[in-house]
Records
---
Amino acid sequence: MKDVDAALIGMPADQRANFMNSPKRIEELLERLLINQQLANEARAAKLDQDPLFQRAVQQQSDKMLTEQLAMKLRAEVSADIVEPLARERYDVNPDAYAIPGRATVRHILIDTKTRSDAEAKTLAEAARAKALAGEDFVKLVTEYSDDGSKRSNDGEIPDGEGEGLVPEFVAAVKKLKEKGEISPLVKTAFGYHIIKLEARYPAKSQSYDDVKERIISDLANRMRDNRVKEHIDELKALELTAKPEVVASLRTRYVPSATTADPAAPGSR
């Protein structure tokens, strides 16, 4: 049991229960520990653990694990009791920042300019738009005219026509559509010509503090915990713990026998 506890020591306490809630993960962990133990016993029998360099490496690994434990301790010092009042203050300063953004659901027809000339594409797009303005079923027009391969699965629908990942010209055209059923002018992008129809526009929706409380606390706590660790490291850096030049030179010539004690040439100086 202690070996299992030790194997999980580097895992945050709130994640251990979830990890150990899987019989398969437990079996894999136990198998790995048993194999490692067997291999370690073989290494000891061969007296590999008595190598001074190996012992130094073990000490360094121990120091690294202690460093990680200290970081976890420093992070734990930032408790929810400290964070929650700050989270409430952050929400009150700018509640609009936590609103659900508005969106516009649209359908579009794409006439691409890769398989035809620009003039041909524009003429075809104008014909499709004229039919849309005349009231023809837009989904049928998508099927008939659109070169967008995704039309087979979505009938040309884009749930958020102002969302990320869409080209600026397309988004700008969608923003100008105000009424349900409104048809855009031809919109030229790198993909070709688009005809866009507004299906629905959903306004931004505000959220109460209780709606977003857990998210704000989590985000703020993680940031404060990271800062706590960084501040401690910065305090150590302020002590000016620098290596002596003669030690740096000695190590360099030890691992690079052809090197001299002079500084290596700067990149591009030769």
---
Amino acid sequence: MGTSLACAALLGDGRRHWGLPQLIERGRRVAEYDAIANEYRESKALPFRECVERHTLFELLGDVCGRTVLDLACGDGFYTRLLRQAGAAEVTGVDVSEGMVELAEDRERRQPLGCRYVCADVAAFEPAERVDLVVAAYLLNYARTPGELVHLCRACHGALRPGGRFVGLNNNVRNVPLAAGSLRKYGLERTWANPLAEGDAMRYTFFNADGSQFGFDNFYLKPQTHTEAFEQAGFRGFRWCDMRLHPSEAGNPFWDEFMANPPIVAFEAER
């Protein structure tokens, strides 16, 4: 559910190249996210973002003080800035959407924290130095095929120092999606093919508090496909992590449907 990239095909020598279909898809996705950059930023104010998404991610990350961090598919820099505020020594955000990166850089100019941003495809991005931590909120759900997922995982693995961690958020591929419209009170809806097959698109539509709305496609790959992709990329200890509700919201029935069958899930792995 974050900004995306198109995955490159690999030549026999391991170099990435773009075929015509990939280039067309890349251009479409960049244009899509450039067009919704402001609305996407507004969606960060939806209650589930803070009470479930943000809380779960930072509980899983633990202490980031002094760490070097790469925030992949960073969007407008929302988590890039939070990571820096949490004490990370260096944080670089990478996103394919020029519109998103412009929003992130504008915020950095107005409220400087020392974050750095790069407009690039994650699948082809190589940091100058390996980092302690790779964070990716809704990156992997843009892979349409097992091969594309492996390429993304390898890019993340290659950016980490030995012993470094990869922590992220993803569409919850472990459960069957809720009935259409049942997430509307949380500010989002999902539509999908029935039955849902490997590589099928899932359409996400967001409804912001200011009345704006926007949508984009994510793609479904089976849980086992993810496990195998992490193993092929060289990661150790890949695991899915359940979403957690902020303690301040404990007992609030508003969250019952969301937490009973959450549309998002966290994960972690180690290089």
